[in-house]
Structure formats: C-alpha cells, structure tokens
Write a structure and sequence with these properties.
The protein has 129 residues and is of the alpha+beta class. Strands 2-1-3-4 form a four-stranded mixed sheet, with no helix packed on it. A hairpin with a 5-residue loop joins β1 and β2. The longest helix is centred in the N-terminal third of the chain and has 10 residues.
C-alpha cells in the first residue's frame, strides 16, 4: 500500500503510459489494481498518511479469498494475525471493500474486475481512459 500516487508510480517505472493514465484516474481511492507480473497497487484516499508512513507498506488482505470482509481486528482470522509482523487496530472500519481490477494487460486495452466493491464496474468503465 502506498500513501501517494506519485510514490506508487515511482516504484513502478516499467509501467506503460496507458496504464499510468489509468492509475491516475483510479487512485487514490477504494481500488486495488493488479499490474503486470502480479504486482498490486493500493493507494487509499486518506486525509493524511499515518505518522511516519513515508514509504510503501507491505500488506495482505485481512481475510481469506472469498471469506467475509472483517470490519474489526477481532474479525480477522487468528492465523492471519499470528503471521503478521505488525498489527494496527484502527477500530471498526466503515464502508465497503475495495474493488480489485486487473490492469495487467491494459497496455493492450484489456481489463477485468476481479472483485466488485466500492467502485462499480460501470464507473470503472468511465474512469479508464
């Protein structure tokens, strides 16, 4: 997870111009973007980064694929919490899960919604150049 789009783009200089333009339209926001090579970029729309967060944070989902979306730390499966180096409790989370969109073939104009969430497929079609 990155705390700025500029930081995310700087970390991925290999991205083509079409993909970069798509990221500029989608992020920051409630979207996780899958890139070529299986890498992902997430830049949440925060009012400000957490104190000391000047670099990207490696994270994983707090649930198993297809499992319920945890809203509180105690909803996260114990096996996931036990494997984490650091766990931050931000209290109960509002909203809906992020949308996951695959842009790994976007330079060729192809994209796919892997999980519809906060941003609907129709809205993605409007946002992607």
């Amino acid at each position: 997870m990155f705390f700025s789009l500029d930081g995310a783009l700087a970390a991925h200089p290999e991205l083509g111009s079409r993909t970069r333009a798509a990221l500029d339209g989608l992020l920051p926001g409630p979207v996780l973007v899958v890139l070529p090579g299986g890498h992902g970029i997430r830049v949440p729309a925060l009012t400000g980064p957490p104190a000391g967060a000047e670099v990207a944070v490696l994270q994983t989902s707090a649930n198993f694929s297809g499992g319920p979306d945890p809203r509180r730390l105690e909803d996260v499966p114990e096996s996931i919490r036990a494997g984490a180096d650091l766990v931050l409790d931000g209290g109960e989370l509002p909203g809906v899960p992020s949308t996951v969109v695959d842009l790994s073939r976007y330079e060729d104009g192809e994209w796919e919604v892997l999980r519809e969430g906060a941003v609907a497929r129709e809205r993605l079609a409007e946002l992607l150049p």
